[in-house]
Design brief:
By secondary structure, this protein is an alpha+beta fold. It contains six helices and 15 strands. Belongs to the thaumatin family.
Length: 227
């Protein structure tokens, strides 16, 4: 019996590695209003779920998934086929398979990357719509990233839009805010506004030093709206 078990384990090492490093994300809505949660990654991967106050949606994400994000959508309306629009974070349908439109508070992650680490962050590079807490729930990691300030209430008038506080790249479409691929950018008064309210969140594309965190691969997480 022992030899048979050993043979089975040796025959499927990749499957065992995959199962041991899959990550679960519990997405919790503690807002007093309905939020339509979404997640997406490159390659038309993702989904979505309506969350009334107090509800939780659990998402299982494959190891090696990179450039992925979870975000809240507000003011949504969908037809029987799941097609529709949202006031903020819109992707055009209930079950997103592409990123949402600004403004949207983002929980970003890349799993099992360099040295088998997960890279996680909260990003305001595409603006802010709902307060968020993004934390690990496994004993192997104790990261807790928060952006819970009243960003919408203090938003500069030129960034205020229906549903949230938009990002300056979307509003002004200028290189100093958009940081085109291959270029570098510096903080601006707008990014400093976001950073002052949420010091551990990305405030502009090159804001890596104080905004990106790691956990061992295989860590599980919880994303809470209105913590």
């Amino acid at each position: 019996m022992a030899s048979s078990t050993s043979l089975t384990l040796l025959s499927f090492p990749f499957l065992l590695l995959t199962l041991s490093h899959a990550a679960t994300f519990d997405v919790v809505n503690q807002c007093s209003y309905t939020v339509w949660a979404a997640w997406a990654a490159p390659g038309n991967v993702g989904s979505g779920q309506q969350l009334d106050q107090g509800q939780t949606w659990t998402v299982t994400v494959n190891p090696g998934t990179a450039a992925a994000r979870i975000w809240p959508r507000t003011g949504c309306s969908f037809d029987a086929n799941g097609n529709g629009q949202c006031q903020s974070g819109d992707c055009g349908k209930l079950a997103c398979t592409s990123y949402g439109s600004p403004p949207n508070t983002l929980a970003e992650f890349a799993l099992n990357q360099y040295n088998n680490l997960d890279f996680i962050d909260i990003s305001l590079v595409q603006g802010f719509n709902v307060p968020m807490d993004f934390r690990s729930t496994s004993a192997s990691c104790s990261e807790d990233i928060q952006c819970t300030a009243d960003v919408v209430g203090q938003c500069p008038s030129e960034l205020k839009v229906a549903g949230g506080c938009d990002d300056p790249c979307t509003i002004f479409k200028a290189a100093q805010y958009c940081c085109p691929s291959g270029s570098s950018c510096e903080p601006t008064p707008y990014s400093q506004f976001f950073k002052r309210l949420c010091p551990r969140a990305f405030s502009y594309p090159d804001d890596n030093a104080t905004s990106q965190f790691t956990c061992p691969g295989g860590t599980n997480y919880r994303v809470t709206f209105c913590p």
